[in-house]
Every structure is written in structure tokens, then in C-alpha cells.
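Appendix B, Record 12. Input sequence as logged:
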Amino acid sequence: MSSFTSQAAPRRIDTASPVTLLAAPENADAIALHDYWQSKRGERPMPDRADIRPSDFARMLPSLAIIEVIDGGRDFRFRLFGSELANWMGCDRTDQYFSEMLPAPGADITPAQVQQRWTDVARAGLAAAGPLFWKAPVLSAQAVLTMHAVVMPLTAGGCEIAQLFGGAFVTATPASPRS
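Logged structural output:
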């Protein structure tokens, strides 16, 4: 069973709650994506972008992103921003530079805050030079939702991190009826 949630109901990251860093992924799709990355890296610290074949995980593509590292991490750009990410985040960020991002329509966050949040995630991925896992609450009127994310580095024909590859998977638990 997939953890994708494709409802058009408004959802957004709960910016008032902290993001929880995890020692290992807790979501089946995040685990599968991490296992794939591990299989492609072999004995190397990280796989090369050329090792990653989207056809190997076609079912997950709507929930995946590839972030290009610009000038050693001074900026970043989404090379891929999956359709499911765009759906539940409220906008498609493909080809957007982090330094130029605007909040999704209706978001309660400033441009500087959205730019800083995404930059912090990408820089954490660079600093770790390995996989990062986290989860965060997602606000929705219909259900209790949690976003599970994984970010993993990739090279591009060398040994420096050139891209970050990962996914965000939303799991839902129906909201309890109120008495």
C-alpha cells in the first residue's frame, strides 16, 4: 500500500512544530528509497547521479525531488520537484532557485522564511555528506498527517556533492470523531 495522499484538501507543514530528525527512516517508502540509494553507492560514500535510474522507482517519482548544489552550497535549485510534492505543498518548485522562492499561495510564512527553511534542509544534507531522515507534522482538516522525508547526496562524475536526492512521503491517520 502506498503512502501517497493525493487529495486536493489544503495541507501544509506545521511551521509551529519542530522537525524531528531520525536515526533511520520510519516510513516504508523512505526506507525503500534509502535502500535503493545504498545499493547504488556500493563501496563509495555516495552514488553518482548517473547511477540513479528513475525507472527503478517510477511509483515514487511524484514524491521525489532532486536539488542541484550551486556554488558549493551558496544556493540550490530544484531540478525535479514531483507532482505529489507540488500538490500537497501548493506549488511546483521545479527549476526554482532557493534564493528566489516565494511561499506557496495561502502559506503563513514569509519569502525569507521559506528560503531559509529549504536552504537549511539542503545545507544539512551537504554537511552530513550522507542520508538524513526526518518527520514533521502536516496540518489538514481531514486527517492527522505526518511527512516523512529522506535526503541523500549524489556526485556528478567526481567526488564532490553535486546534487541531493530524496523524497517526502505523507502518511495519514483519520482524525478521531469528536463526541
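Confidence is low (pLDDT under 50) at residues 1-10.
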